[in-house]
């Protein structure tokens, strides 16, 4: 309990210090960011609030078909749910706008707003209020007020009923449109991404606002025509011809509904917007020139000379406003339009911020685990000498209380002759420690002269020493467990730190590299849809290309991969290719770093006595970090249980290494897992070779395994290490052996069933070297089969133990297609690696 309380206090202190530091940093960052942006946010909020109030005024004045006004109530209803803080100002603005309308509708508007608010308050009382009900509420309010008005004046006809129904339905549709468009102005969006439907809703909202300016004239210039052409110029510059034509159609349609005399504006604005968008690759002047040409041409065919001159003045006024528009406004609008460079950049900036935040969180967790590991190590570095003296003192006190407490010579021994008695007690304890089976006859004579209860003291000492020894054993177990936890926490911390670096590296901008690859491929006449450069790290290149698939031609391996190798300066190969299932003729191809070396393996084995299950297990797998693992494990004994033990050892070790854990720490963790998973004495040998596919440098981890051999031409090189199998001792020392392999080397790994085949009277290592030298084949599978067959013949067909041999051959990779140089292609500059 004392140890548990100390452990909890230490863990809590570390966790508290780690999390409190993180929380304090977060609070300081949030506070500084809030102070820095408070005034900017206040200014922007006031600016948008003023804009919404002006929009409310114009929508209160707006009418279509000279008698319907469905805009104001829909706008006020959406403002109620999105910006309730300015609802009264918007309502006043809409009321003021209705007073200046051509046909007075102020009474209807005020009544509709009152009815809407009453129904909404009733729903809020019963907790049924939701923005999704806004269209229904607007429809109901408009329909009921208009119907009541017609009934009061006794003027209800089928035509008036149809018109009030149309107005109510228009209010419903406009409410749905405003729900998607108004959030752009209320700062409720956290990212700059609008769908095409939302863009159309925004255009409808702006065109509806323009209808509020119908009838306003500045000399010969009509205000709504100037604003509509100005809007077209903005969207044509930002989104090109499709957006320019779309804005022209929508704006012209709504303006023609507000003013039937301006029906020709729809075709004029659509054509002008398309022509302006086609010239967006130039600059503002070219976009303005396109709009001027389009409007003048259609005005020449559709109207008189006076109309043509007025249209030209309106276009010039719109161009003047367009040229005076700040660049920041255009960039802000471009962020919302899908497909623009600004929109893509804003999304990538947002993704980069998310990655940076995630990487920061992972680094913080890594630091917490590192502090925990440091804390556990501090708990296990206490002074061993002082601890042992303390334990000895407890031991002596326990013996004194049980053996000397009732003795009549206690005061004489411990008060008058304390040092003499303590010395004899210590000598007796030392003798019991060296010989636990000490009998009464073996008690030293000098001790009997000092103590009159030697036999009783001996029995108590033997009993207490047994307890003392057991206590020392469990304390050592606890210390070993702390060391293990500290090592594993350090490993987890390192893995998380590597993960944070990987997340940061993914956030690098690779636009220039993608554009360079695209230009090079398009110069060859290849149809490339998209290019995504995921990583350009040396030895870890990953590029994903979607291109037009041509059946019968392997452009990827023959053209694209060699060209990428020349551009990047590193051998690139096709990792995988996937045809799109939708039948559009596209396929996705992933290119990655081609390994400098290739590994070919072969395996042969047999179970003891010809049984079905062998206690040996093997694994040949690429770990994904440029390393290839060839592993062999021999479980204790034979049969299914030994096989399960060896398979478990290999599986756990492989997963630990794939996660990025250090090799020595992975072996120690595996050893701890095998010790804890079973109370029986189950252990397994591990023989693993980690081959670097780029340099052929190989690290051997031999844990209780037999030697391995490297055949290089006619020379055979043995590889051995002195390590116990995993699962026996709680603490093991791991010796790693690193040897650079060469192209053509053959690596032979085997279990003890093959290595011990010649028997004890023969030098096994020399016998096995001669056996490997005599095998002529270089194919790994034939080599393994031949070696196993010779072992069978040596034992006359008898299988005395589980036997498994794994053979791997390392070869320098030869690219299937050579790289080529294309005129004008330059070597790519790789981004700096994030440290």
UniProtKB/TrEMBL annotation:
PROSITE patterns: PPM_2
Highest taxon of the lineage: Bacteria
Keywords: Hydrolase, Membrane, Transmembrane, Transmembrane helix
SUPFAM superfamilies with a match to the protein in the record: PP2C-like
Domain PPM-type phosphatase span(s) in chain numbering: 600-810
InterPro entries linked to this entry: Bact_Sigma-Reg, PPM-type-like_dom_sf, PPM-type_phosphatase-like_dom, SpoII_E, SpoIIE_N
UniProt keyword annotation of Transmembrane helix present: yes
Its EC number(s): 3.1.3.16
Pfam hit, one: SpoIIE_N
GO molecular function ontology, one term from the record: protein serine/threonine phosphatase activity
Gene3D superfamilies reported for this sequence: PPM-type phosphatase domain
Transmembrane segments: 48-80, 86-119, 131-149, 161-187, 199-218, 230-255, 262-279, 285-304, 316-337
UniProt cross-references to NCBIfam families, sorted A to Z: spore_II_E
UniProt cross-references to PANTHER family, sorted A to Z: STAGE II SPORULATION PROTEIN E (PTHR43156:SF2), STAGE II SPORULATION PROTEIN E-RELATED (PTHR43156)
Protein name: Stage II sporulation protein E
Native source species: Paenibacillus allorhizoplanae
Lineage, uppermost ranks: Bacteria, Bacillati, Bacillota, Bacilli, Bacillales
